[in-house]
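ok trying again, last paste got cut off:
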Amino acid sequence: MNKKNLFFTLAVAAMASAVMTSCDKSKPQVDDKAESGKVAPTQTKIAFVEVDSIMSQYKFCKEYSLLLQKKGQNIQNTLAKKQQQLQAAAANFQQKLQQNAYTREQAQGIQLQLQKQDNDLQALNQRLSSEFQNETNKYNNALRDSIKHFLAYYNKDKKYSLILSKAGDNILYADKAYDITNEVIAGLNKAYKSNLSKAGDDKKK
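nice, full thing came through this time. structure:
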């Protein structure tokens, strides 16, 4: 499963106590409205975070990436198995039909059964795909919220005016002096409590 298709691209604009994020299909949004009479800061503090590093080092990402990969593979295996069974039944029917092993009524009945199985398989495919997409969206929302909340807390002391995401070459140049990736990852991992481990402990009780 392609990680870039699974995960959203982080884009964060942090203004003191507020942090805004966007997914990979959305452009970063910044509120242009300023409070009446508010004086713009004389110095703008900017930092950036490497998105790929978060995806590969943040425990939350690593755990749920494996979880979603496993679920996706299970879905593929289930659908493939049922598809093979249906194909085998259809081939067996055709073979016996050529051997005149069925009456017309029997043949029609079997054809209806095979058609129903095919319809059921398509419905199952749609249901499992929808469930998997919902699970992926739930993960993406949780990931976005965890980063958003951490950066809001982190920026109370740092006072950055802008925190950018760097994914691939979306930023043409960035001085490493403004790279806060390691600090962010360390903070995220320190704050993260694995729900997967907790669920495993509950099962053992």
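cool. The longest strand covers residues 46-50. DSSP finds six helices and four strands in the chain.
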